[in-house]
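Quick review question:
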C-alpha cells in the first residue's frame, strides 16, 4: 500500500494517513522509579511534572509506582497525577486519596490470569483496570475474552534469558489479537528498532517493531517477521502505510508500555521522521504529526542498554 493512501477513515495529513499519529499517541508510561534509571521519588516526580507541562502526546502522562512506595509518594506529591499501581505487596493498600487507572501484578507460579483476577475481585479501586503479567511460554491458560483482566508482557531484562524470542512474543500478541485481550508491555523497549546488544549477546526488541507487530496481528498476519525486522527504512515505510482503522484497533489492543526513560522514545520517533514536534503554540502545547512520506533518517537512534523492571 502506498504511503500516500489510507484505507481507514481516509484522512490524509502531509500525504500520510492519520493512523501514523494514532500509533504513537499515549504510548509510554512513566516508569522513572524503576531500574536502571531508578530516580529518587522527588526527582522522578519533578521529571513527571515537567513532562506534564510539556504535554507530549507520545506519553500517557501516567505515573507508575510500586504499592510498597505509596507512603513515600504521598510524602512528596504536590500535584495531581494519574497513577499506575504496580502491586508488589501481599495486599492492596488503601487508595482512597489517589486516582488509580491501572493495577499491574505478576501472577504467582501455577496461577492463571483469571485466578489473579478472582483473588483481587472487590479489592481494586473503582474504575481501575487489572493487568496480569504472564510468562511468555504460558499460553494455554491465557484469557480468551477481552472482558477479563488485561495482560502484561515482559520484553527484556538484565540478562539474556529475560528476553523472550520473537516467536514467543509474537504468539502472545497473536493470542491477544485473536481474542480481543488488551495488553501492556515493559522492559527492553527504550529504543524504536530491534538491535543486537553485544554486552548481553541478545537481540533487543524495539517498540516500533512491537507496535507494527500488533498492527500485523489485528490484520490477521503473522507478527513475528515484523518483530524481527532491523531494516530502519522498511519499518518507517510500514509505519507510514498503516491504515487508520488498523492503527486504532492496534492501539486498543496495545494499551501502553512502561519506560524508565520518557525522552528517548520521543527522540527516536523524531529521528525516524515518524513524528514532527512543532514549536508549541503555548507553553504546554506540543503537536504530534506524521512526517512527510519517504522521510527516513540515515541511521536509527543509538541503542541503549537500559531496562525498566516495572
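Suggested answer, residue by residue:
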Amino acid at each position: 500500500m502506498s504511503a500516500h493512501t489510507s484505507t481507514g477513515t481516509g484522512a490524509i495529513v502531509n500525504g500520510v494517513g492519520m493512523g501514523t499519529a494514532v500509533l504513537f499517541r499515549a504510548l509510554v508510561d512513566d516508569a522513572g522509579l524503576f531500574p536502571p534509571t531508578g530516580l529518587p521519588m522527588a526527582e522522578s516526580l519533578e521529571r513527571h511534572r515537567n513532562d506534564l507541562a510539556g504535554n507530549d502526546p507520545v506519553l500517557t502522562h501516567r505515573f507508575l509506582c510500586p504499592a510498597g512506595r505509596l507512603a513515600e509518594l504521598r510524602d512528596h506529591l504536590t500535584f495531581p497525577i494519574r497513577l499506575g499501581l504496580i502491586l508488589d505487596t501481599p495486599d492492596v493498600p488503601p487508595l482512597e486519596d489517589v486516582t488509580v487507572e491501572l493495577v499491574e501484578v505478576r501472577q504467582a507460579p501455577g496461577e492463571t490470569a483469571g485466578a489473579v483476577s478472582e483473588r483481587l475481585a472487590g479489592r481494586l479501586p473503582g474504575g481501575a483496570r487489572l493487568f496480569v503479567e504472564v510468562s511468555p511460554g504460558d499460553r494455554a491458560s491465557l484469557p480468551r475474552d477481552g472482558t477479563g483482566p488485561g495482560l502484561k508482557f515482559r520484553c527484556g531484562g538484565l540478562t539474556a534469558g529475560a528476553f523472550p524470542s520473537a516467536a514467543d512474543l509474537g504468539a502472545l500478541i497473536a493470542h491477544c489479537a485473536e481474542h480481543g485481550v488488551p495488553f501492556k508491555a515493559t522492559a527492553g523497549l527504550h529504543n524504536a528498532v530491534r538491535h543486537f546488544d553485544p554486552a548481553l549477546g541478545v537481540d533487543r526488541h524495539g517498540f516500533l517493531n512491537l507496535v507494527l507487530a500488533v498492527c500485523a496481528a489485528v490484520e490477521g498476519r503473522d507478527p513475528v517477521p515484523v518483530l524481527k525486522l532491523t531494516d530502519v527504512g522498511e519499518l518507517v515505510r510500514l509505519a507510514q502505510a498503516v491504515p487508520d482503522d488498523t492503527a486504532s484497533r492496534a492501539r486498543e489492543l496495545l494499551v501502553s508500555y512502561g519506560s524508565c526513560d520518557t525522552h528517548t522514545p520521543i527522540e527516536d520517533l523524531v529521528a525516524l521522521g515518524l513524528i514532527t514536534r512543532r514549536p508549541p503554540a503555548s507553553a504546554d502545547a506540543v503537536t504530534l504529526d506524521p512526517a512527510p512520506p519517504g522521510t527516513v533518517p540515515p541511521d536509527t537512534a543509538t541503542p541503549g542498554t537500559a531496562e525498566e523492571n516495572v
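Why it works: The two ends are 37 Å apart (CA to CA). The first strand starts at residue 12 and ends at 13.
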